[in-house]
Amino acid sequence: MTLRARLLWFLVGVALVSLLATCVNSADARTALGVRIPATSLQYRHALEQAAGERFGLAAPVARLAAQLQQESGWNPKAKSPYAEGLAQFAPPTAQWLPQICPAVGPPDPWDAWWSIRAQTCYDAWLYARAPGNGDCARWAMTLSAYNGGETARDRERALADRAGADPQRWFHETASFRARSKSAWHENRDYVRSILLVLEPAYIDAGWPGKAACHVA
Question: Would you say the C-alpha torsion 49, 216, 146, 41 has a positive or negative sign?
Fold first, then answer.
């Protein structure tokens, strides 16, 4: 094989490697923890970091909020369920009400990804400020439970835990064991909290997203 032919094959090989790298980088990433992080998350990462910083400061739990968006919609701004819409899956009544507590997010538009990110971070901050809980893990579990199923049902379950002698200031193995909603809604709510805090958040941290894990629960 002539020198010119070898050079040609070398250049073809470089091009193929470059193309393969591009395809891999554009595909969904799988973390060392086995969680698949959608590639679409990258186009919203800066907006999420900015919105989270405005609401939570320098120690904003970006990985936790990213985990929540993955749990809600898989980072799909066109996601729709029977009750909710958009990237952060706001129910229409909640979206209409949200500017009352978060006027800075502007007119409700859950189909707009940027509005959803601002609304999600503001709503989480509002719920967290009101949340009971002994320690950050419990408070975030209470916050996420309320985001998914409302504060009323969560507080009824805290009351049940208290009457039964469990600790209503803790979530895992305490409040989480009590039910004051339909069985299907209860299972969804518990899976929602556990998935975000114990599975997805550690995976996003492992992938380099800012934040520290709130919970370490067996």
Answer: positive
Tally of CB atoms within 10 A around 159? 14
List the one residue out of 208, 216, 215, 214 whose CA is nearest residue 49. Answer: 208
Q: How far apart are CA 53 and CA 55, in angstroms?
A: 5
Q: What is the mean pLDDT of residues 66-74?
A: 98
The whole-model pTM stands at 0.86
- For residue 179, the SS3 value is coil
What is the identity of the amino acid at 159?
Answer: A
Give the CA angle between residues 158, 82, 80 to the nearest 5°.
105
pLDDT in tens, 21-42: 333 344 688 887 889 999 999 9
- The answer to whether 99 and 108 are in contact (CB under 8 A) is yes
Query: Can you name the residues that pair with 29 across neighbouring β-strands?
Result: 37
Domain ranges in the chain are 46-206
Q: Into which CATH architecture does domain 46-206 fall?
A: Orthogonal Bundle (1.10)
Which H helix or E strand runs over 133? none
Q: Where are the beta strands (DSSP E) in 69-155?
A: none
DSSP result, 165-209:
TS-TT-TTTTGGG---S-HHHHHHHHHHHHIIIIIIHHHHHHTT-
